[in-house]
Amino acid sequence: MTFSTTELSAALGTPVTAVEVIDTFAASSADVARLLVRSADGSGRTVIAKHATGPGVAAARREIRFFAELAPQWDHPAPQLLGAIDPGGDGPVLLVSEDLLAAGYRIVGAEVSDEQLYGAIDALAGLHAHFWNDVSGAPELEPSATSSAQAWPPEVITRQAAAVRREADRFFAEAAELDDAERATIDEVLEAWERQFKARVAGGRAITLIHGDFHFLGNVFFTGSDPRPKVIDWSELKPGLGPHDLAYCLSVVPSDDRPSRDRELLRYYWKALGVPDYSWDLCWWDFRFALFSNLFQSVFQHSVRWYRTSLAAIDALDARTALTEPLPLAR
């Protein structure tokens, strides 16, 4: 993995004389590294650089548009974008952002405290409330039929279901430890999921922009003094159901009574959201329905562990009823 002084100079808008790779990070669509960059006077600082080529270019461009056009609209929790270069066409694209570790932030993982958990929910509610029913006014973002399901435009839902089916064939071919009942769940739910999702978002009602990859294992950072997090990796930003982000981040936080814990935290989110004409019943339905997107993501990740974790959550919260029960939409 290499990052040239020429690229870094162009992105940062100032001459860079030396670049040293300090750490590298696993990423599905780009090369990501912590760099020590030095200027002509010998001073240096660490930054996070994301270099995208090929299939990763579209995701990187979504993130650039987030920083340029969306982040300035509200009190966002994203790190500072220090610079970017995008020559167009096939790229490559380079983003350079502040190093949160150098600023005192850390990943807490599943050991997130209650204070931090509520701070994260406040951040989500702020994002979702700002763009509530206003996704058509956001910059045109290339549809993303990947791990987290996009709600608008409706034809992307069909693309998502097809992508899950294709990836499930590859995943199940590898995952010999899954039994027949576990494998059958995908086929059992996908048709009903696609139909219900399209009915839910018809007319673009009660949807917002979601982060799409909001999780405590790598994308959400905290300091010891501030429960409000910093959140990285906005490349999966997309129109969706607000409770999806909460359902996804809670999947890694252990609980002795997940249904009660999740309802309590979702109720806090719903009150913090404070948008009109969004009933508690619909919020609860959206949350349970979002658990199927978590299941689909485990398929894209080829993770037996998270597949089984998602199945357990679906059963614990009786999410399958969301595929068949009438939608709690206002008439």
Description:
The chain has 331 residues and is of the alpha+beta class. The protein has two domains: 5-97, Phosphorylase Kinase, domain 1, CATH 3.30.200; 106-323, Aminoglycoside phosphotransferase (APH), C-terminal lobe (Aminoglycoside 3'-phosphotransferase, Chain: A, domain 2), CATH 3.90.1200.10. It has nine helices and ten strands. It has helices at residues 5-12, 56-70, 114-130, 155-174, 180-201, 243-250, 258-273, 280-300, 304-316, and strands at 18-25, 31-38, 44-52, 81-85, 93-98, 106-107, 208-210, 220-222, 230-231, 238-240. The strands form three sheets. It has a five-stranded antiparallel beta sheet with strand order 1-2-3-5-4, with helices on both faces. A three-stranded antiparallel beta sheet has the order 6-8-9, with no helix packed on it. Strand 2 and strand 3 (44-52) form a beta hairpin. The radius of gyration is 20 Å and the shape is globular.
